[in-house]
Specification:
Distance between the termini: 58 Å
Radius of gyration: 20 Å
Number of helices: 5
Strand content: 35-45%
Shape: globular
Structural class: alpha+beta
Strand order of the largest sheet: 3-4-5-9-8-7-6
CATH topology of the domain at 23-79 and 118-201: Protein Transport Mog1p, Chain A
Number of strands: 11
CATH class of the domain at 23-79 and 118-201: Alpha Beta
Largest sheet: 7 strands, antiparallel
Order of helices and strands: HEEEEEHHHEEEEHEE
């Protein structure tokens, strides 16, 4: 009666041996203000990200693999947004809404793009050939964001995505594993935030990356 459970355990260990052969370790990026548990030292690629209103922003992709799993963190620096869109508003056609200077238009037009960065990133993920199986608002170390679970239609692999905004930096963490593999919990739950000195922080209250609201205090300070 115990033969099958023992065989199943052996099979699981055999299959998972390759998947977990890569040593996981804490990784921190002082430049992009995040930390995460990553499979080995990630490959870092400089790239760009085009925002919802068409501003080209600097970005980095941190990538790695563990067995059949693929792990990436895309970090986009939204700090140039205010300067770029404020300058652009000075040269807009007369009568355009971006020239009116009312509420969030005119010199404040950049706030719209900043506030909507997480939602825009979610929309980009949903443009893929995927089926969404779960989506929820979430907080990681009290930083507000969104989390999604997607099934890739081509091969039925699963993508677990976490999208957050911290210190005007959009962070998109994605883990893609084959069908039937367990959720990449170690990757998702390890995501955290750094201050300007590279020290990991946790806030006293929920942190929303909102241009008009002061950020909450950091615990222990």
């Amino acid at each position: 009666m115990r033969v099958m459970p023992l065989m199943s355990l052996a099979l699981v260990l055999a299959l998972s041996g390759t998947a977990f052969a890569q040593e996981w370790a804490d990784f921190a990026s002082k430049e992009d203000r995040f930390a995460v548990n990553f499979p080995g030292q990630p490959k870092i690629t400089d790239t760009t990200w085009t925002s919802q209103v068409g501003v080209v922003l600097p970005a980095r992709v941190y990538s790695g693999t563990s067995g059949a799993g693929r792990y990436t963190v895309t970090a986009v620096d939204y700090n140039p947004m205010e300067r770029v869109l404020s300058e652009k508003s000075r040269y807009c056609p007369p009568g355009a809404e971006t020239c009116s200077g009312i509420h969030d238009w005119g010199l404040g037009y950049w706030k719209i793009d900043l506030r909507g960065a997480v939602v825009y990133a979610v929309s980009k993920l949903l443009q893929r050939d995927v089926k969404i199986t779960n989506m929820m608002a979430n907080f990681q170390d009290l930083v507000a964001g969104e989390e999604l679970q997607l099934t890739n239609n081509a091969d039925q692999s699963r993508t677990y995505a976490s999208i957050y905004m911290h210190e005007n930096r959009l962070v998109i963490a994605e883990a893609t594993v084959p069908r039937g593999y367990p959720p990449p919990t170690i990757f998702q739950q390890s995501l955290g935030w750094l201050d300007e000195n590279g020290t990991r922080v946790r806030y006293q209250n929920i942190y929303y990356n909102e241009p008009d609201v002061p950020k909450p205090a950091i615990r222990g300070r």
